[in-house]
Amino acid sequence: MTLQSLADKLEINELLARYCHALDLGDWQAFAALFTPDAALDFTAFGGPKGTPAQLQAFFAPILGGLKAYQHTVSTVVIELQGDCAKARSAAMVPMTRLDAEGREQTFMSGLWYEDELVRTGLGWQIKARTQVRSWAAALA
């Protein structure tokens, strides 16, 4: 492994983490900066859209705004570098808490995989394509 490949993998891991932070902070400007202008996203595995980052933002914003709490996480990242392109697969868990009609907290968990295509741009590594793959979902008591 070269120093460049180590640096690339570190930058890609940071990119994947910034995705989670942008969502959790509702920082839509930072969210948009993660993607190439022609990025194609497929979030149909959990009922989301297939389209652009702007379409994904329009889908996410009202859902996240209606929750009491949520936290996006990624782990077990595997990255295959191919010059200025890369493929990554990472596991994600997303707990989401809402209030029911009586004001009690209800928490739901989703487990999924992200399968990404990434490219090195003048702005650094960005996501060119992302597919969400469903693994599991559960409601916690």
From TrEMBL:
Gene3D superfamilies listed in its UniProt record: 3.10.450.50
SUPFAM superfamilies: NTF2-like (SSF54427)
Source species, domain of life: Bacteria
Record-annotated SnoaL-like domain positions: 4-131
Coiled coil: none
Protein name: Nuclear transport factor 2 family protein
Taxonomic classification: Bacteria, Pseudomonadati, Pseudomonadota, Betaproteobacteria, Burkholderiales
